[in-house]
Amino acid sequence: MQNTNLHNAKVAKNDEFYTQYADIQKEINAYLDFDPSVFRGKTESRHKCRS
Predict the structure, then answer these.
(1) How far apart are CA 12 and CA 45, in angstroms?
(2) Which of 15, 44, 45, 49 is close enough to 9 for a disulfide, judged by CB 3.0 to 4.6 Å?
(3) Sign of torsion, CA 30 32 38 43?
């Protein structure tokens, strides 16, 4: 038996989704609640001067 919703999405190429910014914030906050130093040393400032 064929799933018509999946088939129609495949045919229409309408199967993309985007993660909402609020969901990303919640996930990052959950990591920080568990371990406040989890991202320490993992990020880089974009304002550094490069020679």
Answers:
(1) 41
(2) 15
(3) positive
Q: Report whether 15 contacts 9 (CB < 8 A).
A: yes
- What pLDDT score was predicted for residue 22? 92
Q: What is the pLDDT of residue 49?
A: 54
Query: Mean pLDDT for each consecutive 10-residue tract of the chain (51 residues)?
Result: 72 73 93 91 66 50
CB atoms within 10 A of CB 7: 10
Q: What are phi and psi of 37, to 5 degrees?
A: -100, 15
How many Å apart are CA 26 and CA 32, to the nearest integer?
A: 10
What 3-state DSSP class applies to 14? coil
Q: Is 27 helix (H, G, I), strand (E, B) or coil?
A: helix
